C-alpha cells in the first residue's frame, strides 16, 4: 500500500519533528506520495516563512523519496461529487482538503493526516492514523 501524505505531516517532517520523521521513514518502504496541492501549500510556507534556503533544500531532498501526484479530470469529477454530497448534508470541508481526498481515492492511497475530523466525513476514504 502507498500513502498520500497530507501537508501537516510534511511540514512537521521538514521542521524535524521526531514523530513525523520517524513515521514517514517507517512508511517510506510502502511508498509515499503527496498531492500537487500539498506541494503548493508547502512551497508557500517556504517562500513566506523563515529560513527559506534551509527549508527549500530540505523539501527538495524530501521530494526525492516521494511521488507528486497530479490532478486530472477524473479527480476533478470525484471532487465535484464529494463536494456536492457534503454540501447537501451540511458537512462541507475546504476545497483543498476535498481535492486531496479525491486524489487519495483516485490513486487508491491511504491518507496520512492529522485532520481526521474533516476527512472522516468522506466514508470511502481510508485514513492512516498514527498516534
Please, could you describe this protein's structure?
The chain is an alpha/beta fold and 131 residues long. It has a single domain (3-123), classed as 5'-nuclease (Rossmann fold, 3-Layer(aba) Sandwich). The chain has seven helices and five strands; from the N terminus they run βααβααβααβαβ. Strands 3-2-1-4-5 form a five-stranded parallel beta sheet. α1 crosses α2 and α5 crosses α6. The longest helix is centred in the middle third of the chain and has 16 residues, at 73-88. The mean pLDDT is 95.
What is the CATH topology?
Rossmann fold
Query: In the CATH hierarchy, what is the superfamily?
Result: 5'-nuclease
The residue-averaged pLDDT reads 95
Give me the count of strands: 5
- Amount of beta strand: 5-15%
Percent of residues in helices comes to 55-70%
Topology:
Elements: E1 3-5, H1 7-14, H2 18-27, E2 32-35, H3 36-48, H4 52-63, E3 67-69, H5 73-88, H6 95-107, E4 110-112, H7 116-119, E5 127-128
Parallel strand pairs: 1-2, 1-4, 2-3, 4-5
What labels describe this entry?
five-stranded parallel sheet, single chain, alpha/beta, 58% helix, Rossmann fold, 5 strands, 7 helices, 131 residues
Give a quick precis of the structure.
The protein is α/β, with parallel strands linked by helices.
Amino acid at each position: 500500500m502507498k500513502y498520500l501524505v497530507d501537508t501537516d505531516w510534511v511540514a512537521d517532517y521538514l521542521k524535524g519533528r521526531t514523530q513525523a520523521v520517524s513515521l514517514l521513514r517507517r512508511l517510506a518502504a510502502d511508498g509515499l506520495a503527496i498531492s500537487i496541492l500539498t506541494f503548493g501549500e508547502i512551497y508557500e510556507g517556504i517562500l513566506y516563512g523563515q529560513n527559506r534556503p534551509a527549508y527549500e533544500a530540505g523539501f527538495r531532498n524530501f521530494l526525492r523519496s516521494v511521488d507528486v501526484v497530479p490532478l486530472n479530470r477524473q479527480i476533478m469529477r470525484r471532487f465535484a461529487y464529494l463536494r456536492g454530497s457534503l454540501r447537501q448534508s451540511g458537512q462541507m470541508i475546504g476545497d483543498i482538503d476535498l481535492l486531496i481526498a479525491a486524489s487519495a481515492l483516485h490513486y487508491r492511497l491511504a491518507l496520512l493526516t492529522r485532520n481526521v475530523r474533516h476527512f472522516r466525513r468522506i466514508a470511502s476514504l481510508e485514513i492512516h492514523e498514527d498516534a
